[in-house]
Amino acid sequence: MSRTLKALIALAVVVLLAFTGMAWFARGEAARLVTSPLDSRRPIDETPADVGMAYRDVTVTSADGVNLAGWWTPSENGAALILQHGYKVNRSTDLLGIAALFAEHGYGVLLSSVRAHDVNGGELITFGREEMQDLAAWIDFARLADGVDPERIGIFGNSLGGSLVIQVAAQSPEIKAVVAHSAFASMRSTVETSVRYFTGLPPFPFAPMIVFWVGRDRGMYLDDFDFTQWVDDLSPRPILFLQGGADVVVTPESGRLLYDAAREPKELWFDPDLEHIAFFDERPDEFERRVVGFYDRYLPAPVPASAAEETDGAPATDPLGAR
Predict the structure, then answer these.
(1) pLDDT tens digits, 240-295
(2) E-assigned strand segments in the chain
(3) Which of 203, 177, 184, 206 is nearest to 127 (CA)?
(4) Strand, coil or helix: what is 48?
(5) What are the structural domains, with CATH classification, of the chain?
(6) pTM reported for the whole predicted model
Protein backbone atom coordinates (compact mmCIF):
# COMPACT_ATOMS: atom_id res chain seq x y z
CA MET A 1 0.00 0.00 0.00
CA SER A 2 1.45 3.33 -1.02
CA ARG A 3 2.18 6.07 1.46
CA THR A 4 -0.33 8.33 -0.29
CA LEU A 5 -3.13 5.76 -0.01
CA LYS A 6 -2.36 5.21 3.67
CA ALA A 7 -2.55 8.96 4.26
CA LEU A 8 -5.90 9.21 2.46
CA ILE A 9 -7.32 6.32 4.50
CA ALA A 10 -6.11 7.90 7.72
CA LEU A 11 -7.64 11.22 6.71
CA ALA A 12 -10.93 9.52 5.87
CA VAL A 13 -10.98 7.83 9.28
CA VAL A 14 -10.32 11.13 11.04
CA VAL A 15 -13.06 12.86 9.07
CA LEU A 16 -15.50 10.03 9.78
CA LEU A 17 -14.72 10.09 13.48
CA ALA A 18 -15.07 13.88 13.59
CA PHE A 19 -18.39 13.75 11.74
CA THR A 20 -19.68 11.00 14.03
CA GLY A 21 -18.67 12.98 17.08
CA MET A 22 -20.36 16.14 15.81
CA ALA A 23 -23.48 14.18 14.93
CA TRP A 24 -23.80 12.71 18.42
CA PHE A 25 -23.08 16.09 19.98
CA ALA A 26 -25.80 17.61 17.79
CA ARG A 27 -28.20 14.91 18.97
CA GLY A 28 -27.65 16.02 22.55
CA GLU A 29 -28.20 19.66 21.60
CA ALA A 30 -31.38 18.72 19.74
CA ALA A 31 -32.73 17.00 22.86
CA ARG A 32 -31.82 20.00 25.00
CA LEU A 33 -33.55 22.44 22.65
CA VAL A 34 -36.89 20.61 22.65
CA THR A 35 -37.10 19.45 26.26
CA SER A 36 -37.56 21.42 29.46
CA PRO A 37 -37.42 19.39 32.70
CA LEU A 38 -39.06 21.13 35.63
CA ASP A 39 -35.85 21.42 37.65
CA SER A 40 -34.08 23.18 34.76
CA ARG A 41 -36.61 25.97 34.29
CA ARG A 42 -36.19 29.62 35.07
CA PRO A 43 -37.93 30.41 38.38
CA ILE A 44 -40.81 32.85 38.73
CA ASP A 45 -39.13 35.77 40.45
CA GLU A 46 -41.84 38.43 40.20
CA THR A 47 -45.63 38.61 40.25
CA PRO A 48 -48.11 41.22 39.02
CA ALA A 49 -48.06 42.71 42.52
CA ASP A 50 -44.50 43.87 41.82
CA VAL A 51 -45.82 46.17 39.08
CA GLY A 52 -48.82 47.37 41.08
CA MET A 53 -51.45 45.03 39.69
CA ALA A 54 -54.26 43.40 41.64
CA TYR A 55 -54.46 39.78 40.51
CA ARG A 56 -55.27 36.24 41.49
CA ASP A 57 -53.67 32.89 40.74
CA VAL A 58 -55.69 30.81 38.30
CA THR A 59 -55.36 27.36 36.77
CA VAL A 60 -56.84 25.58 33.78
CA THR A 61 -56.51 22.07 32.43
CA SER A 62 -55.86 21.32 28.78
CA ALA A 63 -58.01 18.87 26.86
CA ASP A 64 -55.33 16.19 27.30
CA GLY A 65 -55.07 16.73 31.05
CA VAL A 66 -52.09 19.07 31.54
CA ASN A 67 -52.56 21.48 34.46
CA LEU A 68 -51.52 25.05 33.64
CA ALA A 69 -50.90 28.05 35.90
CA GLY A 70 -51.63 31.71 35.19
CA TRP A 71 -52.46 35.11 36.65
CA TRP A 72 -55.71 37.00 36.10
CA THR A 73 -56.46 40.68 36.60
CA PRO A 74 -60.19 41.44 36.16
CA SER A 75 -61.44 43.68 33.37
CA GLU A 76 -62.67 47.19 33.97
CA ASN A 77 -63.67 47.97 30.37
CA GLY A 78 -65.29 44.66 29.41
CA ALA A 79 -62.39 43.51 27.20
CA ALA A 80 -59.65 40.99 28.00
CA LEU A 81 -56.14 40.37 26.67
CA ILE A 82 -54.27 37.08 26.90
CA LEU A 83 -50.47 37.48 27.17
CA GLN A 84 -48.34 34.50 26.15
CA HIS A 85 -44.66 34.12 27.07
CA GLY A 86 -41.92 32.82 24.81
CA TYR A 87 -39.49 29.90 24.60
CA LYS A 88 -38.12 28.49 27.87
CA VAL A 89 -39.29 31.45 29.95
CA ASN A 90 -42.41 31.96 32.07
CA ARG A 91 -45.28 34.37 32.66
CA SER A 92 -43.10 36.63 34.82
CA THR A 93 -40.50 37.11 32.07
CA ASP A 94 -40.67 40.25 29.91
CA LEU A 95 -44.46 40.57 30.22
CA LEU A 96 -45.29 42.14 33.58
CA GLY A 97 -44.65 45.72 32.47
CA ILE A 98 -46.78 45.19 29.39
CA ALA A 99 -49.49 43.58 31.50
CA ALA A 100 -49.51 46.58 33.85
CA LEU A 101 -49.87 48.96 30.90
CA PHE A 102 -52.87 47.07 29.56
CA ALA A 103 -54.46 46.92 33.01
CA GLU A 104 -54.01 50.69 33.40
CA HIS A 105 -56.14 51.08 30.30
CA GLY A 106 -58.91 48.95 31.82
CA TYR A 107 -58.24 45.64 30.11
CA GLY A 108 -58.60 42.35 31.88
CA VAL A 109 -55.18 40.71 31.68
CA LEU A 110 -54.57 36.97 31.62
CA LEU A 111 -50.91 35.98 31.87
CA SER A 112 -51.03 32.47 30.46
CA SER A 113 -48.48 29.66 30.29
CA VAL A 114 -48.03 26.47 28.30
CA ARG A 115 -46.80 22.95 28.93
CA ALA A 116 -43.10 22.27 29.51
CA HIS A 117 -42.78 25.84 30.81
CA ASP A 118 -43.38 27.74 34.04
CA VAL A 119 -44.54 25.33 36.79
CA ASN A 120 -46.61 23.23 34.41
CA GLY A 121 -46.53 19.56 33.54
CA GLY A 122 -44.83 18.14 30.50
CA GLU A 123 -41.23 18.30 29.33
CA LEU A 124 -41.46 18.27 25.52
CA ILE A 125 -41.72 21.60 23.68
CA THR A 126 -43.65 21.00 20.44
CA PHE A 127 -43.78 24.55 19.02
CA GLY A 128 -47.55 24.54 18.64
CA ARG A 129 -48.41 20.92 17.97
CA GLU A 130 -49.61 20.29 21.54
CA GLU A 131 -49.56 23.82 22.95
CA MET A 132 -52.73 24.69 21.02
CA GLN A 133 -54.66 22.67 23.60
CA ASP A 134 -53.17 24.82 26.35
CA LEU A 135 -54.03 28.12 24.71
CA ALA A 136 -57.53 26.88 23.89
CA ALA A 137 -58.08 26.28 27.61
CA TRP A 138 -56.90 29.83 28.40
CA ILE A 139 -59.22 31.27 25.76
CA ASP A 140 -62.12 29.45 27.40
CA PHE A 141 -61.11 30.94 30.75
CA ALA A 142 -61.08 34.49 29.35
CA ARG A 143 -64.34 33.98 27.49
CA LEU A 144 -66.15 32.87 30.65
CA ALA A 145 -64.52 35.32 33.08
CA ASP A 146 -66.82 37.67 35.00
CA GLY A 147 -67.03 41.11 33.47
CA VAL A 148 -65.64 40.09 30.08
CA ASP A 149 -67.54 40.53 26.84
CA PRO A 150 -66.69 37.33 24.91
CA GLU A 151 -66.71 39.37 21.70
CA ARG A 152 -63.86 41.56 22.98
CA ILE A 153 -60.93 39.21 23.56
CA GLY A 154 -57.47 39.93 22.15
CA ILE A 155 -54.15 38.14 22.42
CA PHE A 156 -50.49 39.17 22.64
CA GLY A 157 -47.40 36.98 22.32
CA ASN A 158 -43.66 37.38 22.78
CA SER A 159 -41.20 35.49 20.55
CA LEU A 160 -42.35 31.84 20.27
CA GLY A 161 -45.46 33.03 22.09
CA GLY A 162 -46.08 35.39 19.19
CA SER A 163 -46.00 32.50 16.74
CA LEU A 164 -48.25 30.39 18.97
CA VAL A 165 -50.87 33.14 19.28
CA ILE A 166 -51.00 33.46 15.49
CA GLN A 167 -51.81 29.78 15.18
CA VAL A 168 -54.34 29.64 18.00
CA ALA A 169 -56.09 32.80 16.79
CA ALA A 170 -56.39 31.30 13.32
CA GLN A 171 -58.11 28.30 14.93
CA SER A 172 -60.20 30.30 17.42
CA PRO A 173 -62.77 32.83 16.20
CA GLU A 174 -63.15 34.02 19.80
CA ILE A 175 -59.89 35.97 19.36
CA LYS A 176 -60.69 39.32 17.76
CA ALA A 177 -57.28 41.04 17.63
CA VAL A 178 -53.69 39.76 17.63
CA VAL A 179 -50.30 41.33 18.40
CA ALA A 180 -47.18 39.26 17.62
CA HIS A 181 -43.98 40.66 19.17
CA SER A 182 -40.79 39.27 17.57
CA ALA A 183 -42.54 36.12 16.37
CA PHE A 184 -40.74 33.77 14.00
CA ALA A 185 -42.40 33.18 10.66
CA SER A 186 -41.36 29.56 10.24
CA MET A 187 -38.82 27.16 11.63
CA ARG A 188 -37.18 26.88 8.23
CA SER A 189 -36.68 30.64 7.90
CA THR A 190 -35.15 31.09 11.37
CA VAL A 191 -33.41 27.81 12.20
CA GLU A 192 -29.88 29.02 11.44
CA THR A 193 -30.29 32.25 13.42
CA SER A 194 -31.90 30.48 16.37
CA VAL A 195 -29.42 27.58 16.49
CA ARG A 196 -26.56 30.07 16.63
CA TYR A 197 -28.26 32.03 19.45
CA PHE A 198 -29.46 29.16 21.64
CA THR A 199 -26.45 26.84 21.25
CA GLY A 200 -23.54 29.12 20.38
CA LEU A 201 -22.70 26.71 17.53
CA PRO A 202 -22.11 27.66 13.90
CA PRO A 203 -25.20 27.02 11.78
CA PHE A 204 -23.17 24.79 9.48
CA PRO A 205 -22.88 21.91 10.02
CA PHE A 206 -24.89 21.88 13.25
CA ALA A 207 -28.27 23.31 12.17
CA PRO A 208 -28.93 20.51 9.63
CA MET A 209 -27.77 17.91 12.15
CA ILE A 210 -30.03 19.27 14.91
CA VAL A 211 -32.96 19.43 12.51
CA PHE A 212 -32.31 15.79 11.53
CA TRP A 213 -32.25 14.55 15.12
CA VAL A 214 -35.35 16.49 16.18
CA GLY A 215 -37.20 14.89 13.29
CA ARG A 216 -35.82 11.40 13.89
CA ASP A 217 -36.16 11.32 17.66
CA ARG A 218 -39.21 13.54 18.24
CA GLY A 219 -41.18 13.36 15.01
CA MET A 220 -41.04 17.13 14.50
CA TYR A 221 -39.98 18.45 11.10
CA LEU A 222 -39.11 21.92 9.81
CA ASP A 223 -42.12 22.30 7.56
CA ASP A 224 -44.50 21.36 10.39
CA PHE A 225 -43.88 24.81 11.88
CA ASP A 226 -44.72 27.42 9.27
CA PHE A 227 -46.85 30.14 10.81
CA THR A 228 -47.24 31.96 7.50
CA GLN A 229 -49.69 29.16 6.68
CA TRP A 230 -51.85 30.18 9.64
CA VAL A 231 -51.65 33.95 9.52
CA ASP A 232 -53.71 34.38 6.37
CA ASP A 233 -56.62 32.64 8.09
CA LEU A 234 -57.02 35.54 10.56
CA SER A 235 -58.70 37.97 8.19
CA PRO A 236 -61.00 39.86 8.65
CA ARG A 237 -59.60 39.97 12.20
CA PRO A 238 -56.62 42.34 12.55
CA ILE A 239 -53.00 41.60 13.41
CA LEU A 240 -50.09 43.85 14.37
CA PHE A 241 -46.50 42.61 13.95
CA LEU A 242 -43.59 44.09 15.93
CA GLN A 243 -40.16 43.24 14.56
CA GLY A 244 -36.70 44.58 15.32
CA GLY A 245 -33.98 44.74 12.69
CA ALA A 246 -31.25 43.94 15.23
CA ASP A 247 -32.90 40.69 16.35
CA VAL A 248 -30.41 37.83 16.79
CA VAL A 249 -32.87 35.32 18.29
CA VAL A 250 -35.10 35.01 15.24
CA THR A 251 -34.29 36.18 11.75
CA PRO A 252 -35.12 39.90 11.37
CA GLU A 253 -37.00 39.05 8.18
CA SER A 254 -39.65 37.23 10.24
CA GLY A 255 -41.93 40.23 10.66
CA ARG A 256 -41.95 41.01 6.96
CA LEU A 257 -42.51 37.36 6.02
CA LEU A 258 -45.52 37.17 8.33
CA TYR A 259 -46.85 40.55 7.22
CA ASP A 260 -46.61 39.60 3.55
CA ALA A 261 -48.44 36.33 4.20
CA ALA A 262 -51.26 38.00 6.18
CA ARG A 263 -54.34 39.57 4.68
CA GLU A 264 -55.89 42.88 5.65
CA PRO A 265 -56.35 44.33 8.18
CA LYS A 266 -52.67 44.08 9.10
CA GLU A 267 -49.95 46.37 10.42
CA LEU A 268 -46.17 46.07 10.70
CA TRP A 269 -44.10 48.11 13.12
CA PHE A 270 -40.48 47.54 12.10
CA ASP A 271 -37.64 49.29 13.90
CA PRO A 272 -34.19 48.59 12.43
CA ASP A 273 -32.42 49.43 15.70
CA LEU A 274 -34.33 47.16 18.08
CA GLU A 275 -33.37 43.72 19.31
CA HIS A 276 -35.60 40.80 20.25
CA ILE A 277 -38.86 41.68 22.12
CA ALA A 278 -37.45 45.15 22.87
CA PHE A 279 -40.30 47.41 21.76
CA PHE A 280 -41.89 47.98 25.18
CA ASP A 281 -38.57 48.56 26.96
CA GLU A 282 -37.00 50.77 24.30
CA ARG A 283 -40.04 52.58 22.86
CA PRO A 284 -42.52 52.72 25.79
CA ASP A 285 -44.48 55.79 24.68
CA GLU A 286 -44.82 54.64 21.10
CA PHE A 287 -45.65 51.13 22.31
CA GLU A 288 -48.52 52.53 24.34
CA ARG A 289 -49.77 54.63 21.46
CA ARG A 290 -49.51 51.92 18.84
CA VAL A 291 -50.30 48.71 20.71
CA VAL A 292 -52.92 49.96 23.17
CA GLY A 293 -54.36 52.05 20.36
CA PHE A 294 -54.59 48.92 18.20
CA TYR A 295 -56.58 47.05 20.84
CA ASP A 296 -58.75 50.11 21.58
CA ARG A 297 -59.58 50.37 17.89
CA TYR A 298 -60.42 46.72 17.31
CA LEU A 299 -61.94 45.79 20.69
CA PRO A 300 -64.24 48.80 21.17
CA ALA A 301 -66.96 49.00 23.77
CA PRO A 302 -70.38 48.45 22.22
CA VAL A 303 -72.51 51.52 21.69
CA PRO A 304 -75.43 51.50 24.17
CA ALA A 305 -78.76 50.84 22.52
CA SER A 306 -80.19 54.10 23.85
CA ALA A 307 -77.34 56.10 22.33
CA ALA A 308 -77.73 54.32 19.03
CA GLU A 309 -81.45 55.08 18.97
CA GLU A 310 -80.81 58.75 19.67
CA THR A 311 -78.41 59.13 16.76
CA ASP A 312 -79.81 56.65 14.23
CA GLY A 313 -82.00 58.65 11.90
CA ALA A 314 -82.75 61.38 14.45
CA PRO A 315 -82.94 64.98 13.17
CA ALA A 316 -80.06 67.23 14.12
CA THR A 317 -82.41 69.73 15.79
CA ASP A 318 -85.92 69.70 17.21
CA PRO A 319 -88.16 71.20 14.47
CA LEU A 320 -90.49 72.67 17.08
CA GLY A 321 -87.61 74.37 18.84
CA ALA A 322 -86.61 75.92 15.54
CA ARG A 323 -89.80 77.94 15.32
Answers:
(1) 999 999 999 999 999 999 999 999 999 999 999 999 999 999 999 999 999 999 99
(2) 56-61, 67-73, 80-84, 108-112, 153-158, 175-181, 239-244, 266-271
(3) 184
(4) helix
(5) 1-34+188-223 (no CATH), 45-186+225-300 (3.40.50.1820)
(6) 0.91
